[in-house]
Amino acid sequence: MTEHLIVTDEHATRVITLRRPEKKNAITQDIYRSMSEAIDTAQNNPDIRCIIITGGSGVFTSGNDLEDFMKDSVAKAEVPRASNAVKFLYSLAQNTKPIIAAVDGIAIGIGTTMLFHCDYVLASTSASFKTPFIHLGLVPEAASSLLFPRTMGHQRAFATLVMGRTMTAEDAKAAGFVNEIVAPGHTEVEARKVAREICALPAEAVAISRRLLKLPPEDLTRRIDQESHLFGERMKSQEAIAAFKAFFARKKA
User: Domain residue spans in the chain?
Assistant: First the structure.
């Protein structure tokens, strides 16, 4: 378990908290591995009825730690798409427990796409959502190319995934992937209330109903694999190489 992820079990709820504030909760391969483990180990634990994912107050996550991501990609040249990220996506796709997301502040890249695997999403009024994959010469991930248009329609999905436009909390609620908007600093408190409401319901009925509502896991993992293959190919493209060079040059400036 990495120091940048806190996992606690509170009554019947597992709370997964990103804790890397100095990097706006940018996700490393170690964090992906730890999040996967936290989700996977909850699956056969009857005491865990619900999962909350949060970044704490002020920020959800700025997405992939691009330096860590590039380092991992170079080290695994034969598998360009960082494997721990894909394992995390599989964990989300195959998860059987209701997941609540508490989003306070920015949710970039995977910070937005993971929400479409969640069952209930709370966002603060300061939350914003952005998926700038194409700006880096890449393609969408996390089965977002399947889930976004299914949730919000093709036109909104195109503006978000392809054009990389930022969505506010109000935009996200109108698009259908945010349930409630709350005051900044209150997303975790409200998420715990939702978790208690879910945990008070009959467990088997919740599990069966959730499964009926969701796409089959194999549909999600098939799209994750397809996206990952294309993502890996794009990482080697001249567009992506130029975009990453420009990104790191701006960061050093």
Answer: 5-204
Whether 221 shows a pLDDT value over 80: the answer reads: yes
Per-residue DSSP letter, 64: B
Can you state the angle between helices 144-152 and 217-235, rounded to 10 degrees? 120
pTM, entire model: 0.94
| Residue 202 CB contacts under 8 Å (≥ 6 apart), including other chains | none
Q: CA–CA separation, 99 vs 96, rounded Å?
A: 9
Report helix angle 29-40 to 66-75, nearest 10. Answer: 90
User: 18: Cβ–Cβ under 8 A, 6 or more apart, which residues?
Assistant: 4, 5, 25, 27, 31, 53, 54, 55, 56, 60, 61
**Model pLDDT for residues 126-159, shown as the tens digit of each residue:** 999 999 999 999 999 999 999 999 999 999 999 9
Burial of 40 (0-12, 13-18, 19+ CB in 10 A): middle
Q: 119: which 2 tokens?
A: 């069952």
Torsion angle defined by CA atoms of residues 90, 92, 97 and 100, in that order, rounded to the nearest 10 degrees = 170
Second CATH level (architecture) for the domain 5-204: Alpha-Beta Complex (3.90)
Q: Please list the residues that pair with 18 across neighbouring strands.
A: 5
Tell me how far apart the alpha carbons of residues 191 and 58 are, in angstroms, rounded to a whole number: 15
Please give the sequence-ordered ranges of beta strands (E in DSSP) within the chain, or none if there are none: 5-10, 13-18, 50-54, 99-103, 106-108, 120-124, 128-130, 167-168, 180-182
- Answer yes or no: is pLDDT of 91 > 50: yes
